[in-house]
């Protein structure tokens, strides 16, 4: 944790709301396009069934912001939890097909509740179900983006969830915090508000550590946050806070600020929009990546991994050069030309991602070779670079 540069300010754990004393107004006040994510336990009142009262209150607040001209997207979990209730299943099954069946049943209830709640305010809603594959495929990504923009232009509030019924481990996003960040990136939203059943982020688990303090402000992507939220080197692992911290880091790639706040606070969305600082605010202060760079980085899984020698790592990271075949020492996985691959150093630490110009089998044949040899080795040469600089995004080293 960097104490000299004061990456965040904290307040006592007993009074997280005292974050309102902060000098700068909430980032939400300036935001024109917002993504609001609500978690399963909030939506379904800890698994008891859809909390219609809570849904109505969020709909009312979102409607009020919508009337003020803000573009609003809701990412809602709760399909599986509601499906279990509707099917009368007392316990969450572990079999994928049963979870998927529960999601299919519960999603109906979820969307019905939102439709009715928003209709009371004269607002139309739309159901958007996405998988990671939809966002990893360039055409589907662009389609999803233009549909979202069209809906927002029509004054519709899109309600997004993962398409749980069809996902497999390979194509799923896995959690809706990450999905919320991907949607934030997709539509270049100004803010992502993650509503949860906790007040926000603490420096340690307040249930176990009396010295824990509340984090009111921090910079999204600050590595010390990951440790606090249960990342490596931390003793704390409180209720999914890590996925929220990582979501904030991801949202910052498109300049989106994140707020993690309790969805049980009265008028939380309206108060945030009025500039009140509630919860933990994670500001996006990193350089904003282009839409294309974000699309490359937002691949949660890559088809392949190539290991670079130290010279190539330096050429990419410091000298901003393209990746040439000569710098590659190993190739893992099966991929085609145009797929996104991860570039790792000799210790396996990822340093970049990019769209590769050669398939995995061709890459294996030309690796460690100068580019002049490509023609002779493959019989044709589509490019002298393995990954062109324009198709390459540096990803932070994790130490
Ligand atoms: N998509 C899941 C559902 O609606 C929830 C995933 C999550 O809570 O992060 O049930």
What does this structure look like?
The protein is built from 14 helices and 15 strands. By secondary structure, the chain is α/β, with parallel strands linked by helices. The protein folds into two domains: 2-293, 3-Layer(aba) Sandwich (Carbamate kinase); 302-394, PUA domain (Archaeosine Trna-guanine Transglycosylase, Chain: A, domain 4, Roll). The strands form two sheets. Strands 1, 2, 3, 4, 5, 6, 7, 8, 9 and 10 form a ten-stranded mixed sheet that branches. The protein has a five-stranded mixed sheet with strand order 12-11-13-14-15, with helices on both faces. Bound molecules: glutamic acid.
Main features:
alpha/beta; 10-stranded mixed beta sheet; Archaeosine Trna-guanine Transglycosylase, Chain: A, domain 4; binds glutamic acid; 399 residues; 2 domains; single chain; Carbamate kinase; disordered N terminus
List the helices and strands and how they pair.
Blueprint: E1 9-11, E2 33-38, H1 40-43, H2 52-67, E3 71-76, H3 79-87, H4 96-119, E4 125-130, H5 132-136, H6 138-153, E5 157-162, H7 176-187, E6 191-196, E7 201-202, E8 214-219, H8 223-228, H9 241-252, E9 257-262, H10 268-273, E10 280-283, H11 291-297, E11 304-308, H12 310-317, E12 328-333, E13 340-344, E14 350-355, H13 360-366, H14 374-378, E15 392-394
Parallel strand pairs: 2-3, 2-6, 3-5, 4-5, 6-9, 8-10, 11-13
Antiparallel strand pairs: 1-8, 7-8, 9-10, 11-12, 13-14, 14-15
Helix pairs in contact: 2-4, 3-4, 7-9
């Amino acid at each position: 944790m960097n104490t000299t540069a004061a990456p965040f300010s904290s307040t006592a754990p007993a009074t997280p709301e005292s974050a309102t004393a902060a000098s700068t107004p909430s980032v939400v006040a300036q935001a024109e396009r917002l993504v609001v994510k609500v978690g399963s336990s909030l939506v379904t009142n800890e698994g008891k069934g859809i909390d219609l009262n809570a849904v109505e209150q969020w709909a009312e607040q979102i409607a009020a912001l919508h009337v003020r001209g803000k573009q609003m997207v809701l990412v809602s979990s709760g399909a599986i939890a509601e499906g279990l209730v509707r099917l009368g299943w007392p316990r969450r099954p572990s079999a994928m097909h049963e979870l998927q069946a529960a999601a299919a049943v519960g999603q109906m209830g979820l969307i019905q509740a939102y439709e009715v709640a928003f209709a009371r305010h004269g607002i139309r809603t739309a159901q958007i179900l996405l998988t990671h594959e939809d966002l990893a495929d360039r055409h589907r990504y662009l389609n999803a983006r233009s549909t979202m923009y069209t809906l927002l232009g029509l004054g519709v509030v899109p309600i997004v969830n993962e398409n749980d019924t069809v996902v497999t481990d390979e194509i799923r996003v896995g959690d809706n915090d990450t999905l919320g960040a991907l949607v934030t990136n997709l539509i270049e939203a100004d803010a992502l508000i993650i509503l949860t059943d906790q007040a926000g982020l603490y420096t340690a688990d307040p249930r176990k550590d009396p010295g824990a303090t509340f984090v009111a402000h921090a910079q999204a992507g600050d590595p010390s946050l990951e440790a606090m939220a249960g990342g490596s080197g931390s003793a704390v692992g409180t209720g999914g806070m890590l996925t929220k911290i990582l979501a904030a880091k991801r949202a910052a790639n498109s300049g989106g600020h994140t707020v993690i706040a309790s969805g049980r606070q009265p008028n939380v969305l309206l108060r945030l929009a009025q500039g009140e600082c509630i919860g933990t605010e994670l500001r996006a202060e990193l350089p904003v990546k282009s839409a294309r760079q974000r699309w490359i980085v937002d691949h949660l899984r890559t088809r392949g991994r190539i290991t670079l020698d130290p010279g190539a790592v330096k050429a990419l990271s410091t000298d901003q050069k393209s990746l040439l075949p000569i710098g590659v020492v190993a190739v893992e996985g099966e991929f085609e030309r145009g797929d996104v691959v991860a570039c790792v150093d000799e210790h396996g630490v990822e340093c970049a991602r990019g769209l590769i110009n050669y398939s995995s089998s061709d890459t294996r044949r030309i690796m460690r070779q100068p580019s002049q040899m490509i023609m002779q080795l493959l019989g044709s040469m589509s490019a002298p670079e393995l990954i062109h600089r324009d198709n390459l995004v540096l990803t932070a080293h994790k130490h």
